[in-house]
Amino acid sequence: MRLHILEISQFEDKLSDDEKILMIYLGNLYTDINILLKTCVCSRNTPGNNDVVNVAQFSQTFFFFEVLAGKILEGWKIIQQKYNGSKLSQEYHKALKSKDIQNYRDLKSYFKGSNKIKDIRNRYAFHYDNTLSGELLAKFNDSNKDELKIYLSEKQGNCYFHFAESIMLRSLIEDDINKPDQIYDEITEIANKLLKFIFSFFSAVIKIHNIELPELENIDMPETPSFQEVTLPYFLEK
After folding, report:
1. Mean of pLDDT values over 61-85
2. Residue 2 placed within a domain
3. What is the C-alpha separation between 172 and 60, in angstroms, rounded?
């Protein structure tokens, strides 16, 4: 693989403290979102050969998307605090391409109103919302009890509480069976927009401070597989 390798020490003295702080936050956020997106894709890629595997795999994939939604919202909050409306944003906006400015505006517009990412983060991913108790109990009582199951294995890591996952999911998707795919698509779209914004920010750092981009280096690493080749099953053996 060929990579540009920039050493921070070569341009550290050009950066203000505000720039350094924002670079730390955004660099970490980029990596976290990138990892979670790949995890979502790999889990979603994993085929199942029976109903038990399919429902467990679905729950695992949805969980990763829930965590990704939470990370996205927390990341946007730090962008609001450290970038939106700041002197830094005024300076950096001048260095952004028009498509990057529009991408940033799309993100601001999305997070301005109610959205599924905010709902998932606040009610499901990072919190157990006690106000949902009545709704969850109602869905439990209204469920087809023959479809609610617990799968217990001799190994702790392969147990699966399908009934709980089913009820929580029904609450989230409001019993719309097409909604999971819509949620996947919405979270993936915003995640990619956030990655594009962060990449454009670091491109602006290079442009504003006239940082010379090093030549591409060949890095020896194992052959990188495609997304379609990597799977992440719920059930595993030691």
Report:
1. 92
2. no
3. 15
